[in-house]
Each structure stands twice: as structure tokens, then as C-alpha cells.
Amino acid sequence: MRFGSLPVLVLTPALLLSSPCLAAKAYPEAEKQVLELSRQAIALRSVQGEGNKTPEVAELFRDALIKGGWAANDIEIVPYKDTAYLIASWPGSDPSLKPVVVSAHMDVVEARPEDWERDPFTPVVENGYLYGRGASDTKFDAVLAMEAMMELRRQGFQPRRSLVIAYSGDEETTMDTSKLIAERLKDAKIVLNVDGASGTLSEETGKPLYWSWQGGEKTYIDYKIEITNPGGHSSMPRLDNAIVQMSQVLERIGHYNFKPELNDITRAYWTEAARLEPDAELAAAMKAFVANPADPGALEVLRANPAMVGRIATTCVPTMISGGHAQNALPQGVSANINCRVFPGHSREEIMAELEKVAAEPAAKFSDVTGDDSVMAPASPMDPEFVAAVTKAVKAAWGPVPIIPMQSSGASDSMWYRALGVPSYGASATMIKESEDFAHGLNEREPLLNIRPGITYYLSLYKDLSAK
């Protein structure tokens, strides 16, 4: 398969269906609908707040599913505040079996038209890419996974295990609908989270470098630190100046390294990534880290790399600070926010206690201000059945591409399922160059070369996981 010429093409629907650069097997109806439905979804400004059109995205998807063979009573749109979530079931032949869930979200982050080269909510197809807010996070992926299931139904397939589409409506903000869906589907066998690209394309050739499935993610936590003092006139300095105390606390936390860790998923990641890493020094550090997570030489190299440091251990960094009340007065109070991404297996209380010890300042009062937007969740297991199914699906779609397990430093709907004991895996079909990943940023885009292999991937995955 060759992908290098695609970025210079204007990828019209007709060209998309006939391009020799894509997989040999074609699905004309599904491929056409992926592009059209993605355009329609991007045009709906599904952003939290006034004018939120997430419910309209849900209605758009419901109507498409009904045309694709779903019974209206097998689809539910549940309004929630200014948004909504969608659950659509394709009943399996054996109702005693736990369902396979396909997870994504319909909302997007805000985008200001004056900042973009193209209006973010006017989808544009240009030079082989679909542009618009949600193109890569994650309306295109949601549509691709859904249209592939419609194609499977058109082929006359009957799943033994029910297939459930579960799309949340506020993943980018409060995740309230994410929690509600997970609670309703806590009897699922497995969740396939298709939020964002799982594959990486070569910057030079455009060909697939590797594909990764996400089996765990670090937990998002915010801690607030407060230091208060009586204050006073600035002409009479005190030894316990709150700003000075806070600066010393933040310096200690900023230079602190949590204990390096491995679990089954990250061990597999480092092992496989080392084989593919072209930088000899970095590859050697990866191998040494697997052999000994406390290896000082390996840690020096990995901690110096922004892309790697978050994969080694828990990280906590100061992100906001506020204090003082007048230029000529001693500060009466200072506060700071510490944002942590916690390696699975540690509690909020444990991490806060460690930070308090690092701070070494009795006047510093810590509190957990994360709220209900995050939850501690263990990593999903290295399920041989899932690994075999995605390996087969990726090969069918893209050929013999290296496959790497990974643990994300970010957060997704998967954590709500994992917290309830349901295995959830990031397993999107799409591939993208790292330099073209503009999720949450300006001029967000998605390579349309993903459509045909993406359908091939999902057809294989759905068949295998719903058959047993």
C-alpha cells in the first residue's frame, strides 16, 4: 500500500472510491456515507453552553441508523442539561451474552472562527483531508465506526453477542453523560473506545509506522495549595511571607520525581517501542528502563524527553498561582493549583500525602479540588482475545503494521467503564501523522485515506468480538 501521494490530491468522493492507494476491497455505499455524515456532524456546533447542538448530532446519527436497519425502539437519545447521549443496540442472537460496546463522543471543544483559516463549523474537503472542529476528535471516528456497523448489517451478518453504540455528549467538559452511560452498560463484556487516532503515519512517506491500542490511562487530579498569613505593611517584612513560602513549595514540587513504575501494558509498550525507535540512545534507554525502572541513565534520557516523561510515572506540575492584595502590603494569602496525572494503582489521598511531604511546609494546606470530573481506574487487562482480534483487523486494513500497547497520559470515557470493572480499550481505526494531529487546536483535520481501511478494520473486529 502506498500513501505518499494522497496529501497532494483533492480527494473527491469519486476519487476516494477508486483510489489505488487504499485497500483493494471497496464499500461504495459505506464510504460515501462516512464522508457525508461526517460533514453533517461537523456542521453542528456541539459545544457546551448556549446553542449546544449535541442533541442534533444524536438525532442525525439516530436517523442514519434507522435507515441502516436499526429499529427505532433499539435507539435511545437521552437529554441531559444542554446536551444528550445516544445508545443504539443491535441485538445479538444470544441475549445471555454480555454486549460489545463501541464508545465515542459527539461534543467538541470550542473553536473561534476568527482564529481559523477555515470556519471550524463549515466542513471542507481539501487536498485529501476533511477540515473542521471534530474532524479528528472525534466525529469522523464516531461516524466511521457507526457506518462500518451499518455495512456489516447490509452484508446480512447476525452477531451472536449484541453490538451497542454508546456516544456521550460532554466528554470534553464535565463527562456527566459519560458516567451515566458507563453505569447503564456496566454489564458489557468489552468496550471499544474509538476516540482519536490509534495509528501513526510516517512523516516522510505517509505509510503506517505503527498502530497502538490503549489499555490504561493516568488519572487526572487537581490539588489546591493555600498559605495564609496575617499580612501587614510592606515596610515591615515578616520571615513567613506567604509568597516566598509558596515559591519554595512550588520549587520543591516542580523538581520532584515520583517513583518510576511499570505495569503489563507499559512494559509491553516500552519493549515494542524500543524496537521501532530510530534514535539509538532513546532506544537503549527504553530497553534499560524495562530491565530496571530505577536505572539512573535510562531515567535521565527519558525524563529529558517531553513525549516520554509522562509514561514513566505519576507527574505533578504547578499550573496556576494567585496571591497578594496590594503592591505595598505583605500577602495575606497565596494559592496554587497542582495538576497531577497519576499512574494507575494510586489513590488521591496517597498522592496528596506525598506532595505534602515534598512541600515540607507546615503552613501549606492541601485540598483535592478535582470534583467529579475524574475517577481512579485500573488498567484494562492484556486480554488475548482482544489482542488477537485487533491484530487481525489491523493487518486486514493496513497490512503487517507493528502493534504496540500503550497507556495514555490523558483522559477519556474509558476511565468510567474501567472504574466499574469493564475492560475498555482505545482502538480507533484511523491513522495520522503526528505533525497533522490538531485535535483541540486550529485547523483540525482528518486524512480521508482512513475511510476504506477503517471500514475493513471494523468489519473484522466486530465480527470476531461479537461471535463468541
From TrEMBL:
It comes from the Bacteria. Residues 216-365 form the Peptidase M20 dimerisation domain. Residues 1-23 form the signal peptide. Keywords: Hydrolase, Metal-binding, Protease, Signal, Zinc. It holds the Pfam family M20_dimer. Belongs to the peptidase M20A family. PANTHER family: N-FATTY-ACYL-AMINO ACID SYNTHASE/HYDROLASE PM20D1, N-FATTY-ACYL-AMINO ACID SYNTHASE_HYDROLASE PM20D1. This is M20/M25/M40 family metallo-hydrolase. It comes from Novosphingobium album.
